[in-house]
Amino acid sequence: MEAWKLLGELAKRRDSAGQRRIAVVVGSGLNVQAGVQDSWLALLERIANEARIERASKERLVGMLKQTGASGMTSIWEAFLCELANADEAPHQVEHRLQRDVAQLLRETHERKAADLEFFQRFVDSSFADILSLNFDRSLLIATGGEDVAGDGTLTRRGRAGGSRVWYPHGDTKLCRSIRLGVRSYGVYIKELDSAYRGYRQMRRATKGRSSEPQARNWLEAAMQQPLLFVGCGLSTDEWPLWWMLHQRARDQARRPTRHRDPCFVLCAGPLERISSHLRSGPAGLRLLHAASHAESWQRLAQAFET
Q1: Positions in the chain short of pLDDT 70
Q2: Are 279 and 147 in a shared domain?
């Protein structure tokens, strides 16, 4: 079935609470669509310029950001840590300071203006069961008057907007140490995800035969047990934990009869040849929801969830 048509069919399904049985994963594109003016690139440039480091170090960081457009964040994060390194602080202290600076800047920019952006409320009104925000900022919760983020670790931290559970797989500004970026952090995180996946498999075995899905205990379980939709996400190949989850999910889905598999979609726009060949190849079972322009893609998405 054509991807847009299939999404329209799945959009009609509701859980026992009346929410759409879909987990939507949102990235910086959601903030752009909502009207957030401060780009991630501009924020990183500001952090680089305000850092207490030598001028040559600042110029190297700003030059890297301009050249990459802030894509490839794993390498960019590592570059920041190396330029900020000094003899008086341990590496983990430098990283914590960078996490704190990012969180503080997002609170001063994105979150301070969130209450004035009506788009977030319209998005939440689509009634998704789960929203997985890859953004660190909590603009979605602030704009909708939602329940703030709580939880001990990045895997389990979540808030609530309307009837949707809102998870933060990359961390959030309320708890700056929850922010996940960089080689070391990703390596540790994948171990945590592997443990959570084993827990998910045990849960599936224990609840086999039941008519309803058990409540998700973490964002990985939310992504595993229902259709998945990526909106406003670049899905860069250096987001290792995200791709680890997607490939584990694909393996899990492959064991089910075709009619019982939950598809995975990614919203994309523009000429097909400009979309990365990686995404066009359909890795981990991803299906493209393609439109000619960004405006058309958001319009078609809204139409799919009108009912």
Answers
A1: none
A2: yes
